[in-house]
Amino acid sequence: SIETTAQRADILHFMDVTDAEGVAPEAEGDTVWCQMGVGWQTMTESPSAQTKPRKFINEKSERKNITRYSPSFAFEALLMFLNPAIRKVYDIYTKRKTGTAAVVPMVTVDAFDTAVGGYYPARKGKYAVEVSSCDDDDDMIIKGNFNGQGDEDIGWFDPANGKWSDTKPTAQPGEQADTPVPESENE
Fold first, then answer.
1. Which of 14, 80, 111, 145 can pair with 39 through a Cys bridge, CB separation 3.0 to 4.6 Å?
2. How distant is the alpha carbon of residue 11 from its chain centre?
3. What is the spatial distance between Cα 161 and Cα 163, in angstroms, rounded to a whole number?
């Protein structure tokens, strides 16, 4: 039905934790992606489209064109220090890392879309970690923003196996499109 609505659990986020303490890739050169699910209380995307107005002499009204984006994700996470993605953010904050040392690769997956061979449409980008606070009355909560660093790559991601593809995978003969994967199955 055209009225079907994507749920928050249908948009999945993954962080590259290959270089995180205690993480060991299966083979040299492998990327280890950690799903940002349990522990992450909010992940609010702001594409922050930048505009440039123009007015033409034959028109009364101005036009605004999109000229670029300045994306960011506002986040809140419980300080689950054994979670590799949360620990990576915490280490950037506590060790006061700057520049490229404070940048993390992340993938955003549209798991509400139709999968091909286990792969869903996805975006991969680099984000500078900006921690604004780490406090609470009971459980510690770390808050901040992931600020976009350049253009994102558009591709395909297999959440079950943590694999990225720049090209759309092809379905094998007789294979049907996969149904969306709820977040609870990927943790």
1. 80
2. 9
3. 6
pLDDT, tens only, 44-99: 999 999 999 999 999 999 999 999 999 999 999 999 999 999 999 999 999 999 99
CA distances, 91 to each of 85, 96, 127, 135, 176 (Å): 10, 8, 15, 15, 43
Backbone angles phi, psi at 77, to 5 degrees: -140, 140
Does the pTM exceed 0.70? yes
Rounded-to-integer distance, Cα 124 and Cα 170, Å = 20
Q: How many Å apart are CA 113 and CA 65, to the nearest integer?
A: 28
Query: Which H or E run includes 47?
Result: none
Give the pLDDT confidence of 150-186 residue by residue, as tens digits: 999 999 999 999 999 999 998 765 555 555 555 444 4
Residue 90: count of CB within 10 angstroms of its CB: 20
Instruction: Give me the numbers of helices (H) and strands (E) for the chain, helices first please.
Output: 1, 11
